[in-house]
Amino acid sequence: MSNNTKKWFSLNLNRTKKSEACGCGNNASSCEEKTPKDGYNQVMDVSMSRRSAFKKLTAGLLIGAGAVSTSCSVISGDESKEKSAIEWDEYFKGNYKLMTDKEKNETVNRLVRSYELRTGKKINLSSKDAEEDVLFGYAFNISKCQGYMDCVNACIEENNQDRASQMQYIRIHEMEDGKGFNFEESDDNYYHEVPAEGHFYMGTQCFHCDNPPCVEVCPVQATWKEKDGIVVIDYDWCVGCRYCMAACPYDGRRFNWKTPEVPEEEVNKNQHYLGNRLRKKGVMEKCTFCIQRSRKGQNPACVEACPTGARTFGNLLDPDSTIRWVLENKKVFRLKEDLGTEPKFWYYMD
Amino acid sequence: MKYLKIAIIKKVMLGTLICLFVISCKHTEEKYHNVMEKIEGESVKYKAPSVSSPMINAEIKTVLVEEGETAFLIPERKSQISSYNCVECHTEPLSVLMQKQVDKKAAHWDIKLNHANSEIMNCATCHTSNDMGNLHSLTSTTIDFNYSHKLCSQCHQKEFKDWKGGAHGKQLGGWSPPRLSNTCVNCHNPHAPQFEKRWPVRFNTEKVKERQ
Predict the structure, then answer these.
(1) Which of A67, B76, B133, B212 is most exposed, with minimal Cβ within 10 Å?
(2) Could you tell me which residue, A27 or A326, shows the higher pLDDT?
(3) End-to-end distance of chain A based on CA atoms, in angstroms?
(4) Considering only alpha carbons, which residue of chain A is nearest residue B158?
(5) Nearest-angstrom CA–CA distance, A199 and A177
(6) Cα–Cα distance, A130 to A63 (Å, whole number)
């Protein structure tokens, strides 16, 4: 732990040879760094009086005691020690937004290892950043959607969504002809042969607004807009206050009321830190345009699953992309455009 | 003395104003007023990103479609038709074959034409009786099975235009170039092009409970 880019204190336990304590309050200045205060340093790298230092140390001791008791015990094996060391490091890591590439790599490796320790299986977790000259956009053809809901199924499987609560990112609304977008009277949980006579279908999900109100209200900056326009959540930084859920005018965000459970054999092992990695209880989640796929050049799972071709996804900055052709040649509109949220999700008709 | 004071005050005020001006004009946050402006502004200096379409469909053979300014790939068709090459059976003209046919349940028994109506279309509108391995246009120009969109586009001009642009049909490869799109017959059965009614693949039972 000699590198000085580390933003929190690591437990070395009996696993590794060298232990070089860096911060216990009183010698914090020795591990000072130029990067903004983050993670461990937000708490520890502050000047404080002797009294408050003692207070904080006591509190810290109490938290640490649990971790140490399992990890330092002679009885528990090397694996459980590693496990608690990972847990410790995960607990004190910083906001993903502020992490350097190295730190991103480290946390990803920790999560992969932790999953391996728990299940004995390897996952492929990515921390790929946004590409230059990419801004993702989405178009939805209302005339083509038949309401089959293949997209919903694909989304659940791709994004490792909790099976029991049936919280779904995508909603397909069955609307009556001649009434326009009337969400009050529409049904998003129909079960009859589709397309039904006299109805049309339209899907909603996170619209990845260019001026996202959910980001504005987050008190801990656990959600933000990436350079390629995808609005993401750091599940490990989210405190679950659900302000963003209230701020979203499109019902785009979902909350985990309980620990999401995915049958082991159904877990999609192709994951991204900001995307479909396994979430925990009490955090927000939502559509990420399948960040684990789209950053690799693939289409989101819903686009790939749609049998009618009602869904178009692409790079808004590429003048030759199909999404640009749709924006320039079809009569497109967005939901609640007057709010100024600038969603990057357009609807159009034939 | 008094004038000096006024001059100092003036200078201080001017300084404050300049400071305010500098601070308030710092547009570090957003350069654009809306997303359309942003798209326009940012795409001026557009350089194709390094990610390219992961040819997840590498096993799919493709052919290139060039229509005016657009060029993209579509899946190759002939290898996907189960009974191609047609001349393996169609060795003689159709009339001769039909006379020889003893079993009524011949090769194409499952094909029922449900496309427009019989006034407009029959088998021979697209298929050529003396050249079964190819299709033909309204003016009897030969059309290869791989480029059957040329046949469809004779009537469905609007859909064809949208398909070329990307508003109609399904993209296969991914969003990044090269573009790979489904061709007409990959989604529509040419003999019955309408999509069929069916049940949705999902029903949210939790939502039903919540609403009770």
Answers:
(1) B212
(2) A326
(3) 60
(4) A350
(5) 5
(6) 37
Does the residue A6 lie in any domain? no
> Which residues are CB-contacts of A239 (< 8 A; sequence separation ≥ 6)?
A219, A220, A222
Tell me which chain A residue has its CA closest to the CA of residue B169: A309
- Please answer whether residues B93 and B130 qualify as being in contact, where contact means their C-beta atoms are separated by less than 8 angstroms: yes
Query: Residue A348 belongs to what H/E stretch?
Result: strand A345-348
Are A307 and A175 contacting, i.e. CB atoms less than 8 angstroms apart?
no
B174 at interface of A, judged by CB pairs closer than 8 A: yes
Q: CB-CB: which of A152, A309, A348 is closest to B169?
A: A309
Indicate if the pLDDT at residue A80 is higher than 80: yes
Contacts 24+ apart (CB under 8 A), B80-83: B81/B145, B83/B107
**pLDDT higher for B94 or A123?**
A123
The minimal CB distance from B201 to the residues A153, A189, A321 is found for: A153
What's the full length of chain B, in residues? Answer: 212
pLDDT of amino acid A1 = 42
Using a CB-CB distance cutoff of 8 angstroms, which residues of chain B are in contact with residue A194?
197-200
Query: Which positions ≥6 away from A158 have C-beta within 8 Å?
Result: A268, A276, A290, A293, A300, A301
pLDDT given for residue A23 in this prediction:
43
Mean pLDDT in residue range A124-151: 95
Residue B97: predicted pLDDT? 80
Structure tokens at B201: 């693949």
Q: Return the minimum-mean-pLDDT range out of B56-65, B113-122, B149-158.
A: B56-65
Query: For testing the chain A interface, which of B40, B44, B172, B175 should be mutated: the one with the most A CBs within 10 Å?
Result: B175
Kindly state whether residues A107 and A44 are assigned to the same domain.
Answer: yes
Same domain for A341 and A321, yes or no, is yes
SS3 percent helix, strand, coil of chain B, rounded to 5, is 35, 10, 55
Q: CATH number of the domain at A216, please.
A: 3.30.70.20
The nearest CA of chain B is from the CA of A175 a distance in Å of: 15
Of A98, A126, A154, at which residue does a domain stop? A126
